[in-house]
Amino acid sequence: MKKNTTPSNRMIVMQVATALFLEKGYQTTSMDEIVAVSKVSKTNIYYHFKSKEELLAAIVDQMINRYTDMIDEIAAQTDWPVTDRISRFAALLTEQTPNSLGGCPFLTLYVQTSHDSEVVREAIGAFFRKQTTTMESLLQEGMDRKEIQTALPLPQLAALLVSTIEGALFLQHTQRDPALLSTILHTLATMLK
Amino acid sequence: MKKNTTPSNRMIVMQVATALFLEKGYQTTSMDEIVAVSKVSKTNIYYHFKSKEELLAAIVDQMINRYTDMIDEIAAQTDWPVTDRISRFAALLTEQTPNSLGGCPFLTLYVQTSHDSEVVREAIGAFFRKQTTTMESLLQEGMDRKEIQTALPLPQLAALLVSTIEGALFLQHTQRDPALLSTILHTLATMLK
User: Fold this and answer.
1) Out of A156, A163, A190, closest to residue B164 by CB
2) What is the ipTM of this complex?
3) Exposed, middle or buried: residue B8 (CB in 10 Å: 0-12, 13-18, 19+)?
4) Is A25 helix (H, G, I), strand (E, B) or coil?
5) Which residues of chain A lie closer than 8 angstroms to B115, CB-CB?
6) Residue B19 φ/ψ region, left for φ over 0, alpha for ψ in the -120 to 50 degree band, beta for the rest
7) Which of A28, A157, A175 sits opposite B129 (nearest CB)?
8) Would the CB atoms of A124 and B159 count as touching at under 8 Å?
């Protein structure tokens, strides 16, 4: 019995807490609220996660693993043009959790957690480093296939793209204009042709 | 006596609270902590600000006014090349408060405050709209002076620039690489020549 119910309760708690942390805020969400929304008992929640910090760390790990897999999968679609893969990859960061307080879920958790959650902030930093490397490989592929033309160093261009995606997700949120991200990426893609 | 001390206490409280909200976090800073750090009495603080929300609103108003003035002043330096003015303008967003949790102080307060501070979030949204308009005028000036060459629509290009600046300030913070913003802006400027 335990084997079947334990992972499921853990999953429900993580799902409920992810939505609350992203849409309402990490600091303003209490464990009691997670109990109330998830309908999982407090004892059971604390059996899985010793503290809210531990729950946050598990959520960020899960988000990083999921997004890394999805990004790698998109990057491997060699039958799509490189710019299409980059746009797909950017859209991914918002479509799973469209109501994150800061646009991108990773940016939201990074800014919501303070220096007392340094481990989480470092994990998110490493995720963006990995994203920049993937972007650089995509750009190299675009150059090899003559889809992209640039004399600029690819590591810098990759950092520019990752920054623009994060900034556009944020700006789009502040302007409540869901078309802004794709407009901005289209503008950048035009500059690279 | 009151006329002289009142604005000064108000100023001290705002200065202390701005640093705490940006570097430690809005939700995790209590009014008691502001009392302890500012050494202004609780009674005096509550005389000026009815609540932490009211203090936040006053801080955001002040930040918006200050940055708008500084941005307008930089934009008016017609003896500087347009790209230099854009870089200056971007650097400004981080140099006054270099330790903001999310890189840019406006992004930090936007993401730190939840939907219960909608007025603050809307004010920050309006600030970025204004910033995009200023950027568009600068780009137009750059085109007129042949410093910038592009066939792209300027409103889109302005949104791209504002996004890139915000994203680069964030990425620079996560990577603890204080040179990243200027590298990214230099890359973008090269693409516009």
Assistant:
1) A163
2) 0.93
3) exposed
4) coil
5) 24, 101
6) alpha
7) A175
8) no
User: Tens-digit pLDDT profile for chain B (193 aa)?
Assistant: 445 555 699 999 999 999 999 999 999 999 999 999 999 999 999 999 999 999 999 999 999 999 999 999 999 999 999 999 999 988 888 887 778 999 999 999 999 987 778 899 999 999 999 999 999 999 999 999 999 999 999 999 999 999 999 999 999 999 999 899 999 999 999 998 8
Please state the length of chain A. 193
| Closest by Cα among B49, B65, B46 to B126 | B65
Q: CA nearest B101 in A: which residue? A: A111
Amino acid found at B19: A
pLDDT in tens, A56-96: 999 999 999 999 999 999 999 999 999 999 999 888 888 87
Measured between alpha carbons, how far is A76 from A138 in angstroms, rounded to an integer?
Answer: 9
The structure tokens 């009392």 sit at: B35
The gap between the terminal CA atoms of chain B, to the nearest Å, is 58
Cα A134 to chain centroid, rounded: 14
Copy the structure tokens of residue A16: 């409920």
B114·A152 Cβ contact <8 A = no
The encoded tokens of residue B98 equal 């270099």
The structure tokens 């789009």 sit at A172
- Provide the token pair at A65: 């693993």
Q: Which chain A residues contact residue B121 at CB under 8 A?
A: 174
Query: Residues B136, B154: contact at Cβ < 8 Å?
Result: yes
The pTM (predicted TM-score) of the whole model is 0.93
